Amino acid sequence: MKTFRRGGAHPEENKLTNDCSIEVFPLPKQGVVFVSQHLGAPATLIVQKGDRVKTGQLIAKAEQFICANTHSPYTGIISKIDFATDFTGYKKQAVFIEVEEDEWMEGIDTSPDIIRDIKLDSKEIIEKIKEMGIVGLGGAAFPTHIKYMVPQGRTAEFLIINAAECEPYLTSDYRLMSESAEESLIGIQIMKKALGVEKALVGIEENKPVAIHRMTELAKNFTGIEIVPLKTKYPQGAEKQLIYALTKREVPSGKLPIEVGCVVNNIGTAEAIYHAVQKNKPLIENVLTLTGKSVKERKNLLVRVGTPMQSIIDAFGGLPEDTGKVVSGGPMMGKAISDLSAPTVKTTSAILVMSNKESSRKEETNCLRCGKCITVCPMGLEPILIAQLAENRLWEETEKEFAMDCIECGTCLYTCPAGRPLLDMLRLSKNNISELRRKRTQK
Amino acid sequence: MALLTVSGSPHVQSKQTTKSIMWTVVIALLPALLVGVYYFGLPALVVTLSSVFLCVLFEWLIQKYVLKVTPTIKDGSAVITGVLLAFNLPASVPLWILAIGALVAIGVAKMSYGGLGKNPFNPALVGRVFLFISFPSKVAMSDWPLPKALFYSSSVTDAVTGPTPLLAFKNGQAADLFNMFIGNIGGSLGEVSALALIIGGLILLFRKVITWHIPVSFLLSAAAFALVLWLVDPSQYMNPAYHMLAGGMMLGAIFMATDMVTSPITYKGQLVFGCGCGVLTIIFRSFGPMPEGVSFAILIMNAVTPLINKGFKPKPFGY
């Protein structure tokens, strides 16, 4: 079974929603759509308070290089343009839409018919991906079209599709592959065409046999798509680890996957690209998992971007009594939400409700120097050493110990028997190193 | 609305804690204790319990009254030191000597460095070696308590003494390998039964408290080196099997060298550390004035550990 070279752990899988079919979540009364929902330069707002927008209408335009369009997921009047708290707790500019009905823009194909013919050429596909506001749905929200503009001197050899879904609890990718495998595979063909590569490798953790089977069967109808089962081990879906597992190539430190001839996208992104290119549909909805051990009704839901998380939780029995933490995303890398009025964004993959007992940290003791954090680190770092340097505020030293290579997968903090705040200290180091580097370039 | 906790990811953690590790080690030491009590009688139990009590007491007193911090005796680490110290001593050790050993182990070797996780040397070994060089006649005698099973002895007080297998070899005799395997030999109260110690080691491996790297490299390197010497001159040097089962070899390789605080943090480093322990042990045993060398070998490698950690760093991904 293929896997990454070193480290990793196997947290309790808790895929409680494996058998829940994707259900369409009803439109909220008021949608709150962030103007920028991607990594990079902010998009420029092109609507005003009082405007009436239709579903799928462009509301913020990408005018800079690393930037993405944002579309209205709703039909209704813009009641205000104001700052709203997002799932990370920061306030960001958002468009508040009073939802009236669901009238889609002309030219968007909302029928369930599958369109198999890929009519557009590479350049047109990339333009379409940009136009439809597609961003990486694996979590980073990097504007997807940028990845397909391969820089001079580099060639793409493989398209890597991340369908590992190595985070515990999450099942949205699994359900997508089980229910609309063909759309995903057409999406992958489109991506291959855009890149001009012969081969796509789809990595799926072996704990999803149904998805592996379904995808493998259907992939026979396509050329150059290989479905590769991967060992169930966290963080199998981390970009560099996934590339290594599938190609045995090691992305050099600080470089992008294209350096080793790979372009990586999530399976959810493939599905979004299918809809964008074949159906002319912008990225205004996504599948998320509502889950947690005490949640009354666990679901996989197709949700419009900008739906307040509170309304999703309330629709299925509200917060359980013992709730301690609500996480946007999985338990390993997700963000703890402070304000449930925060709306979903393009990349929201899950709303995970955890009890205090499950989510509170271990009692902290002195470090035992057991070295487990080093053994499990998939990047080959020494988390405890970096943490000790960070406690002494020796930022230059943490840089020499490769703190910037940390991918923040959290396996060290997950594993540490002494409950040391390893990843917290690594993040602190990375922030301070970035600061140092900024100062250095200023000089 | 309910108050929500906000913190950095990850939001779940593994079940293993400092406490669970320490108490697992204590459980893994129990088979050897049972064998010790079986062969050496009640004194073995009394010595072990006293040693545990004294170590925990000293840790508590020092934390509460000297360092003025919240005592952490519940983490079980002082209990382990207590058991290991007793295991390295003969069942006949006088309690006042045991108390000195416990004070050195906890007070000097552990708390003076800052307590759990900060000590460079294995506390129990420091305690043992201190007693060994201070009171050789009480803890490293030429006549050790010999096994005399508690259950069919008329009186436990009339201790029978004789040489340990290592001493016996130096005197030109040899012990039976099977008796050495099950523990029916003279020696420190917890070191005699290779079988019981291996069972304990398997518990540690299974519960993911230790990995195979240190015990295997320790034993293999010792066996390999001993084999070379034995092939050179079988009359002067012990055969490797005898080395494996005699003295503190198993206790050292499985429980003392694997102390995570005082051993290297990477697998590569642990292999180097284990090999160092193995080779040094055979050197001390074969060429030194004393029959046993495990404690010194481990302590020396403890001292080298920071250097090993620097020299055997993992290769970061992408370099």
* Major sheet strand order of chain A: 1-14-13-17-15-16
* SS summary, helix count of chain A: 14
**Helical run tally of chain B:** 14
Strands of chain A, total number: 17
- What gyration radius of chain A follows from the Cα positions, in whole Å? 22 Å
Shape of chain A: globular
Question: What is the count of distinct domains of chain A?
Answer: 3
**Count of separate structural domains of chain B:** 2
Rounded mean pLDDT of chain B is: 88
Fourth-tier CATH superfamily name of the largest domain in chain A: NADH-ubiquinone oxidoreductase 51kDa subunit
Verbal overview:
The complex is a heterodimer of chains A (443) and B (319). Chain A has 443 residues and is an alpha/beta fold. Helices cover 29% and strands 20% of the residues of chain A. Chain A folds into three domains: 1-24 and 111-360, Rossmann fold, CATH 3.40.50.11540; 25-101, OB fold (Dihydrolipoamide Acetyltransferase, E2P) (Beta Barrel); 372-442, no CATH class. Chain A has helices spanning 122-131, 144-147, 172-179, 181-195, 209-219, 239-247, 267-279, 309-315, 356-359, 372-376, 383-391, 395-400, 411-415, 422-442; strands at residues 22-24, 30-34, 44-45, 52-53, 58-61, 70-71, 75-85, 91-101, 158-162, 199-205, 225-230, 262-266, 285-291, 299-304, 323-328, 335-336, 350-355. In chain A, α3 runs parallel beside α5 (209-219) and α4 (181-195) crosses α7 (267-279). The longest helix of chain A has 21 residues, at 422-442. Chain B has two domains: 19-139, no CATH class; 160-309, no CATH class. In chain B, α3 crosses α4, α3 (77-87) packs parallel to α5 and α10 runs parallel beside α13 (267-287). The longest helix of chain B is centred in the first third of the chain and has 25 residues, at 42-66. Chain B is globular. The N and C termini of chain B lie far apart (49 Å). The chains are: A alpha/beta (443), B mainly alpha (319).
Task: Set down the secondary structure blueprint.
The complex is a heterodimer of chains A (443) and B (319).
Chain A: E1 22-24, E2 30-34, E3 44-45, E4 52-53, E5 58-61, E6 70-71, E7 75-85, E8 91-101, H1 122-131, H2 144-147, E9 158-162, H3 172-179, H4 181-195, E10 199-205, H5 209-219, E11 225-230, H6 239-247, E12 262-266, H7 267-279, E13 285-291, E14 299-304, H8 309-315, E15 323-328, E16 335-336, E17 350-355, H9 356-359, H10 372-376, H11 383-391, H12 395-400, H13 411-415, H14 422-442
Parallel strand pairs in A: 1-14, 9-10, 9-12, 10-11, 13-17
Antiparallel strand pairs in A: 2-8, 3-5, 4-7, 5-6, 7-8, 13-14, 15-16, 15-17
Helix pairs in contact in A: 1-4, 3-5, 4-7, 11-14
Chain B: H1 18-40, H2 42-66, H3 77-87, H4 95-110, H5 123-134, H6 136-139, E1 144-145, E2 161-162, H7 165-170, H8 177-182, H9 194-206, H10 213-232, H11 240-245, H12 249-256, H13 267-287, H14 294-311
Antiparallel strand pairs in B: 1-2
